[in-house]
């Protein structure tokens, strides 16, 4: 058969198929090369019988519906909810971070407004700035550091549990988000003139400009300079010990801790010298000293045991306290629990022990029996009390007979310094009040003073409004309404402290908490209290940035451990 005949046969088959199966796809003809094999195949092929009068019956399709189980449905819903939650949370965090990094425009200084000068950038000053409405005042901040330090987590810095940058927030983050522009000067206040209402300050940074000390005037002065570490005049306390008051203290303490460990690992050291270098002494049984001792214990157990196994077993931690017990502000049950935990962690507690002298390599103490004992150490941390700064002592002397308390400035119930004619407000560690010198007290006092100034501004506005209404001979009902608001704004409530509880970390992922509950206290200690301690501090941190960085630090330590390298 010729090729033309083959093509004709293919077309005929295609036409028959279209008539028989109208809905089927068109069969395209296939072309074969003209070879002997294909010619014989086509010649001998017998076409299938086709009945054009009876269409082919469609084949029924059976679809089996597989029933989805309840567990699979639950997992699908859970996955979708989780995805939506992650996307929503991520978007919200991104928006909040973007908003924090992009502050809006601010109102410039107004010469007609009164000027408030704020000295300090601690808990007291920053809490006051946060609650103050700067639209009604011109505000100037003077501080030797340009950041706010979250002191409750400071004991975590020397061992590397938390990075130093994670617990600080620049002052300008606060001031740039205020309605009116706030001037910030990094400098140390040298003197306050309560008569002339001036403050003299100077730049104390390593790199200085040509300008010398500067003096500015104020209408109101917020005096919140804090306090210094109290050494009680003990010889060698300043020269031979480390403090834990500022961020640079914690960084220096971290360097000295690793210095002691590396020096103990150096060849040629005697056993007694190694024991001395690995003995860490903490003086002060308050929350700072107890938390530092707990952090040092965790550092030894979790990290030094892995990287310095030959030295970790020989590390000793001793806590010295002059009072009968540690954590005197906590309940007796929590004090006993803390001492029991320290005993299990092999942390020595020396109570009723007075420090008499601190030598370069040993501390001289007076034990409960009255005997003098030399205790060798490689590192000694002084976590004692507070004392007045020189500028505060000078201000107390200038105010004269109104200031007789040697513990700090005397203030009234509205935080006004006595003898300042209502121009100086002071709160925090630099004042002598009946409250403990804690961050919680300073924060509440600062927030109260900020609200007080807002009320004073509202009072001044209403006074001007009433005078204007009277001058314009307005309706009596309108004048009466404004007068009632003025009367309400003129009532200034005194400061009232609300104790929210006390927390302290004691090591080994344990913490103690003494919280007010109904008419009494609720005391708790252990691992669950440690989780509450972390969540409480996480919520108290200043910004989303701080919370994120601290959370990342905690995760890093739990996965990779603490860094044991030296700067």
Keywords, please?
567 residues, alpha/beta, 5-stranded parallel β-sheet, 15 helices, 40% helix
Please tell me about this protein's structure.
The protein has about 575 residues and is an alpha/beta fold. It is about 40% helix and about 20% strand. It has helices spanning about 5-20, 35-45, 70-100, 125-130, 170-175, 245-265, 270-275, 285-305, 310, 330-345, 390-400, 440-470, 475-490, 525-540, 545-560; strands at about 115-120, 135-145, 145-150, 170, 180-185, 190-195, 200, 215, 220-225, 230, 240-245, 280-285, 315-320, 345-350, 355-360, 360-365, 370-375, 380, 385, 425, 500-505, 510-515, 520-525. A five-stranded parallel β-sheet has the order 5-2-1-9-20. A five-stranded parallel β-sheet has the order 11-18-12-13-14. A three-stranded antiparallel β-sheet has the order 6-7-8. Strand 22 (about 510-515) and strand 23 form a beta hairpin. It is globular.
Q: How much of the sequence is in beta strands?
A: 15-25%
Number of strand segments: 23
N-end to C-end Cα span: 96 Å
Uncertain runs: 23-39
Radius of gyration, Cα only, in angstroms?
39 Å
Q: How is the quaternary structure best described?
A: single chain
- Which outline best applies? globular
Total helices: the number is 15
Strand order within the widest beta sheet? 5-2-1-9-20
Class by SSE composition: alpha/beta
Helix content: 25-40%
Overall mean pLDDT: 89
Biggest sheet overview? 5 strands, parallel
């Amino acid at each position: 058969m010729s090729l033309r005949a083959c093509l004709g046969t293919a077309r005929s088959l295609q036409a028959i198929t279209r008539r028989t199966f109208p809905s089927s796809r068109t069969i395209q003809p296939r072309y074969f090369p003209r070879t002997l094999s294909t010619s014989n195949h086509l010649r001998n092929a017998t076409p299938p019988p086709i009945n054009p009068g009876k269409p082919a019956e469609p084949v029924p399709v059976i679809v089996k519906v597989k029933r989805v189980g309840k567990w699979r449905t639950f997992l699908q819903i859970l996955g979708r909810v989780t995805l939506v939650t992650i996307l929503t949370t991520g978007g919200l965090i991104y928006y909040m971070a973007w908003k924090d990094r992009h502050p809006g425009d601010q109102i410039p200084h107004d010469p007609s407004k009164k000027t408030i000068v704020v000295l300090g950038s601690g808990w007291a000053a920053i809490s006051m700035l946060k609650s103050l409405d700067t639209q009604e005042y011109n505000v100037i901040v003077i501080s030797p550091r340009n950041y706010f330090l979250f002191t409750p987590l400071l004991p975590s810095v020397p061992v590397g549990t938390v990075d130093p940058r994670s617990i600080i927030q620049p002052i300008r983050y606060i001031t740039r988000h205020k309605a009116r522009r706030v001037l910030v000067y990094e400098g140390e206040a040298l003197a306050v003139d309560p008569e002339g209402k001036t403050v003299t300050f100077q730049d104390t940074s390593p790199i200085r400009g040509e300008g010398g000390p500067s003096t500015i005037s104020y209408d109101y002065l917020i005096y919140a300079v804090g306090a210094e570490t109290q050494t009680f005049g003990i010889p060698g306390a300043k020269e031979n010990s480390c403090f834990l008051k500022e961020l640079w203290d914690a960084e220096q303490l971290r360097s000295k801790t690793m210095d002691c460990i590396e020096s103990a690992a150096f060849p040629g050291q005697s056993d007694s010298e190694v024991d001395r270098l690995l003995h860490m002494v903490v003086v002060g049984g308050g929350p700072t000293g107890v938390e530092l001792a707990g952090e040092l214990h965790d550092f030894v157990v979790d990290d030094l045991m892995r990287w310095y196994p030959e030295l970790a077993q020989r590390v000793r931690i001793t806590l010295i306290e002059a009072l009968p017990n540690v954590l005197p502000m906590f309940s007796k049950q929590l004090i006993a629990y803390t001492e029991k935990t320290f005993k299990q962690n092999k942390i020595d507690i020396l109570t009723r022990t007075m420090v008499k002298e601190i030598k370069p390599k040993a501390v001289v103490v007076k034990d409960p029996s009255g005997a003098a004992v030399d205790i060798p150490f490689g590192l000694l941390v002084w976590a004692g009390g507070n004392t007045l700064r020189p500028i505060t002592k000078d201000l107390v002397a200038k105010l004269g007979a109104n200031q007789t308390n040697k513990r700090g400035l005397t203030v009234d119930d509205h935080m006004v310094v006595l003898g300042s004619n209502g121009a100086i407000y002071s709160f925090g560690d630099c004042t002598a009040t009946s409250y403990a010198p804690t961050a919680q007290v300073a924060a509440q006092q600062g927030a109260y003073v900020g609200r007080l100034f807002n009320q004073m501004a509202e009072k001044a506005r209403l006074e001007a409004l009433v005078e204007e209404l009277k001058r314009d001979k307005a309706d009596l009902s309108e004048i009466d309404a404004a007068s009632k608001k003025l009367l309400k704004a003129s009532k200034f409530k005194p400061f009232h402290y609300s104790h929210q509880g006390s927390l302290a970390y004691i090591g080994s992922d344990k913490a103690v908490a003494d919280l007010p509950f109904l008419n009494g206290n609720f005391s708790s200690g252990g691992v669950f209290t440690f989780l509450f301690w972390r969540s409480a501090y996480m919520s108290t941190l200043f910004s989303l940035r701080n919370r994120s960085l601290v959370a990342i630090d905690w995760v890093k330590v739990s996965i990779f451990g603490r860094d044991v390298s030296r700067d």
